[in-house]
Amino acid sequence: MFKQSFLFNVIFITLITLGLLYLFFNSLNWLTNHGKQTTVPALMGKNMSQAVQELEKMGFRINIDSTYKNDSDPLEVLFQEPEAGTSVKIGRTIFLTINKKIPPSIEMPNLVNMSFRNALLTMHSYYLEMGDTSYRPDVAAGAVLEQWVNGKQIAPGTLIPFGTKINLVIGEGLSGEQPVPNLIGMTWADAKLLLDSLSLTSNVIWEGPVADSNTAIIYMQQPEALNELDFRNSIPQGDIIDIRIMQSPSEELIKQNQPGSKKLMGYDDSTDLNTPTLNEPAGQPKKEVPDSLKRKKIPGMDVHTVPNVETKQAKNNLKAPDKKRNTSDVTNPDKDKPKPKPKPKTDAKPTPAKKNDNNISNEFN
């Protein structure tokens, strides 16, 4: 009796298990939507809300991510997975990437002195875009000289939006030569404009306290505009000029560093400050030159004397040769060579010997 009941229970449990398995496998098609497929719609370019409503009506699940592109509208669908037109099961998850509504900010990297290729790689890693490029003569050929955003130079570390277009100025090496400009006495603001117009760069050294850099005065430069012979010096376009600047250098310091021979010879009363210029009317009184700027007189130079009898006699003595001059002490490299004997003149009368103070020579003659 016990064995029959046990066997009956085993058979009953087995039938129930088989029935449950049959029901499970038959319901898989309904649970997994087996055989029920649909086509993924095209969502790229649509607004996020519109795309979500369309996917929910079709029974899809949605996963949304975001990034930023400055040439796309806010909340625009930039990417979808699976692609449009793909046949998938109903209820599958569709991944969407939308454009952010507010662009995030990022610190501007320092691209100056990088090569053009490295600058492009750096901008790509910072989610920045390449704008316009311009070239300028410079020693650093192929290197980034300046970085600009919206018409202004931008310093490294400045916060800018993702996707900002960066304009770069690239060096193209040195080109043709041009005269060196004279910057002595100019303000730094005017000198910068002149150097930029000539495609020259500068290496500036500031000396002393500077209250306003734009009004500071240049008192020394290298190379100079003129050489010691007052000829113009030349410099290639894109080369560097070394400049020294002070806030208020003295007039004497500026005069001493003027180019050319003036700094070697100094200044006299008849040049520069006393000579009327084109900007000064002819009737204006001459400016007085300080003693410190006057040319130092060298002894023996620029001596003006009143002519008199003694000076005239001295000039005559210098012009007339001295007949009594003894030429025996003068060095003559040909004195040891035998001199040719003069040919006797048949028609000429013998010239009487002149007497002098030498008694022995008179007796001989």
Cα(first) to Cα(last) distance is: 192 Å
CATH secondary-structure class of the domain at 177-265: Alpha Beta
Taking the sheet with the most strands, its summary is: 4 strands, mixed
User: How do the helices and strands follow one another from N- to C-terminus?
Assistant: HEHEEEEEHEEEEEEHEEEEHHHH
What is the CATH-assigned architecture of the domain at 177-265?
Answer: 2-Layer Sandwich
Roughly what fraction of the amino acids lie in strands?
A: 15-25%
Task: Characterize this entry briefly.
This protein has 365 residues and is α+β, with helices and mostly antiparallel strands. The protein is 24% helix and 22% strand. The termini are far apart.
Structure description:
Strand 8 and strand 9 form a beta hairpin. Among the domains are: 71 residues, Trypsin Inhibitor V, Chain A (2-Layer Sandwich); 67 residues, Trypsin Inhibitor V, Chain A (2-Layer Sandwich), CATH 3.30.10.20; 89 residues, Trypsin Inhibitor V, Chain A (2-Layer Sandwich), CATH 3.30.10. The chain is α+β, with helices and mostly antiparallel strands and 365 residues long. The relative contact order is 0.07. The N and C termini lie far apart (192 Å). The strands form six sheets. It has a four-stranded mixed beta sheet, with helices on one face. Strands 2-5-3 form a three-stranded mixed beta sheet, with helices on one face.
